[in-house]
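debug: dumping io for the single-chain case to check the tokenizer round-trip. Nothing else runs in this session.
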Amino acid sequence: MYIEVQNASKTFLQNGKKFTAFNDVSLSIEKGEFICLLGPSGCGKSTLLNAIAGFSPVTEGSVKIDGKEVKEPSVKNVTIFQNYGLLPWRTVQKNVELGLEPKKIQKEERHKIADKYIELVGLSAFKKSHPRQLSGGMQQRVSIARALAVDPDIIFMDEPFGALDAITRMKLQDDILSISKQEKKTIIFVTHDIEEAVFLADRIVIMTPNPGKIKSIVTVPLKGHRERTASDFLQVRDKIFDLFNMKHEEQIEYII
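debug: decoded output
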């Protein structure tokens, strides 16, 4: 298995008191999978993402990627957040090239790589624009292009569309799903939106709070393009709603 989380817990000290963000979490992820961590605020899904990414290592248990224990972030992986993290003084093209510069790739090759991914996210007409000239959705596309340009092994996404309006959000969901299939990247995506998880994921990891734990793991059987109003999509969505209302003491894996 490519990513292995085994009996992992994460605790913090807050005002002198011990706080457990998530407890005894075990999860296996295959290379090329699109995994959604789904749950309400406070269930530890972002903390789990940060632990797998190496930003905040677990306090108990282990996290391994490709057999190696995760203790710090890797340059092989990238993280995309809600705030786009673009440099305002750089153009779209220069922002996308940012991660390529430390690799000492020649200027012409950098331009070529950046152009490929700017075209992939549909922003070729805006590559000379600056972030202030772009909408929020366009800025997030730039951050996605920048992430893809460095050819990462894993893309971590922490509610990247959470601040966007509904129409822009749906368009970016379409885009990231298409890109994930085309680029065959391993993606771990945090969300609290059930429909978003059903639309994107190969498997949905349902988390519950106090402390954060995995309640169930759902394999989504939908293939190809997903229609949000189709009966098979609605069936999966409704099953997820039901799972949140069920009381399980043990982690259970479902294939719907």
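debug: round-trip ok. Residues 3-74+154-255 form a domain with the Rossmann fold fold (CATH 3.40.50.300).
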